[in-house]
Amino acid sequence: MKPKQLLVIGDSGVYGWGDREAGGWCERLRRNWMQLQAAPVVYPLGIRGDGLERVAARWRSEWQCRGELRRQTPEGVLLAVGLNDTARVGRPDGR
To answer: Could you tell me the residue range of the domain that residue 69 belongs to?
Structure first.
């Protein structure tokens, strides 16, 4: 049975920036799930500074170039929206 594939795409939170102990929440999740019998393959595709516009521009090409995922569709895509996309209260442009 082929394992399911989960693509996690977003910013530095997905990448694990700042978590020197365990590599961020996505890496912690991957390590935890590896203990399960039917654990999905987790692809953490985070880039520091990316916002929704950049993620939208690259999400499809990210999984199409991965060896296991080439010519396939991942079973799940988790979009992690971080601080780069958080609106600031009181600013007309939301930045």
So the answer is: 11-85
